[in-house]
Amino acid sequence: MAKLSETAPNTLTLQPTINSRSIAAGELRPWGSFTVLEEGRGYKIKRIEVKPGHRLSLQMHHHRSEHWIVVSGTAKVVCGDKEILLSNNQSTYVPQCTTHRLENPGVIPLVLIEVQNGEYLGEDDIIRYQDDYARSEK
């Protein structure tokens, strides 16, 4: 997905390459950030970073499910009526139309990979029920 190029003697940098299915786009949020690593028909892959002590809104999606895999840090996950803690190399599944929340209760950044599946994967398919950053819709 990236090419190495020489910018100065003995220095290599990564140059992003983009094809019709790949996207390298990052967005900042009050809780941290996410980067879209790849997107194709029916799926999107994101790298999500959540700052220590922060959490995403309690939310739901009508058109997609999500798989979360923890790369580093600790994730506190609310999914429906269940609450679990995940650490490095653990994962969970969030079914479509299920209320969920992701939180970083730790002291280091939480990094995870999110794989979305569904017919529509737009950021506007978020119904927020509670939000620490006054973005609630209900």
Please explain how this structure is put together.
With 138 residues, the protein is mainly β. The chain is 0% helix and 57% strand. The chain contains no helices and 13 strands. The protein has a 6-stranded antiparallel sheet with strand order 3-4-5-12-7-10, with no helix packed on it. A hairpin with a 2-residue loop joins β4 (32-40) and β5 (43-50). It is globular and about 35 Å long. The termini are far apart.
Task: Summarize this structure as a short list of keywords or feature phrases.
138 residues, globular, 0% helix, single chain, mainly beta, 6-stranded antiparallel beta sheet
Number of helices: 0
Category from helices, strands and their pairing:
mainly beta
User: So what's the overall shape?
Assistant: globular
Helix percentage range: under 10%
Give the strand content.
over 45%
Strand order of the largest sheet: 3-4-5-12-7-10
Overall pLDDT metric: 87
Order of helices and strands: EEEEEEEEEEEEE
Distance between the termini: 40 Å
Computed over alpha carbons, the radius of gyration is: 16 Å
Q: Which regions are unreliable across 5 or more consecutive residues at pLDDT < 50?
A: 1-23
